[in-house]
User: What shape does this take?
Amino acid sequence: MQQLTEALAWRYAVNQFDTEKKVPEETVEKILTAGNLMPTAYGLQPFAFVVVSDEAIKQSLIEHAYGQKHVAENSHLIVIAARTDIDEAFVSEYTARIEATRNLPAGSADGFKTVMVGDIVARTEAERIVWAKRQAFLALGGMMAQASLLEVDNHALEGFSPSGFDEVLGLKEKNLTAGVLLAIGYRSATDEWQHYAKVRRDLSDIVIEK
Ligand SMILES: Cc1cc2nc3c(=O)[nH]c(=O)nc-3n(C[C@H](O)[C@H](O)[C@H](O)COP(=O)(O)O)c2cc1C
Assistant: This one.
């Protein structure tokens, strides 16, 4: 599929994946790469992609997702986790990486660092996590688009308990908290949802021209 709009019209929130079909690892990597290439505010990328393919671990997540079986019955579950340690050291690591990547003299990104620290690090912990989760959703969008272009079915999920996921996946000790989920795989031939027409507003309802 070449066109993104065509791919997005093809995709739907799969209710039943074919659990026999696994997404090849190189395809999973392409999807993760798209998420990594998505822009984030300041470029800070305050998230991690936790790729869960272990069936037992996925099964143990169902109870933390209001019983939604498609967190387990898929090929891979990608948990986009927000960082909880957005401090000056985190920002400094980023500015040092900018300088190294672009062969800039040490300290040349210090002004940029001061802006980020004053804007993001200065927020409360709760505000920083909300901000980090917003960035996680950008990565989610990129991954969904890439998966669809590769004809890999995908289903985003926000209906879960972050604390339950953090516990099962050991995220707290990694300074992460689960932000949003992306189940990927291939639709089951018997998933009736694939036959339902897509429900979207007319563009004219949501586009405001000034
Ligand atoms: C951020 C996000 C969170 C969602 N959370 C859930 C969820 O917890 N459970 C669920 O069954 N569907 C969930 N969905 C699926 C949406 O209901 C679905 O994508 C929407 O109705 C549009 O339908 P479509 O994806 O088939 O086009 C979520 C979708 C997004 C984008």
